[in-house]
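=== Given protein ===
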Amino acid sequence: MSEPAFRPRVHIILLGVADVARSAAFYEALGWQRAPTSHAGFVKFDLGGMALALISKADLAKDALGLPGDPGASSGLALIYCAEHPDDVARLLAQAERAGGTIVKPATKTQWGTAGYFRDPDGHLFEIDHEEVWAFDREHHLVV
């Protein structure tokens, strides 16, 4: 029996920004609605089946690359795939590696769930994340 597919989905566009409050105010001025589950360090906007999330560039570099205080270590952008089960994080990272990606951070227990990062062959950063708080529709689109 083959393993479950890595569905062709991006659930969250994660932007590392210089000032989360300033960036959030910008998107709110465009008329975008801040998700009620947002907080000062992690602000989400519903994009209809996916989300735009804002985090400080330093926090993104620390989480993805383990480089605290080095916001230049990251491009400031990560695409996030939300896994349905915590065990899927390691499995999907391994699948990405077999396909030619490079593991940046293995599946790791976090204060919010389980997460790991990989880069595609061109160096773009992806996170595989599982959190109990995420909800999905029947098509596995994110409900923000």
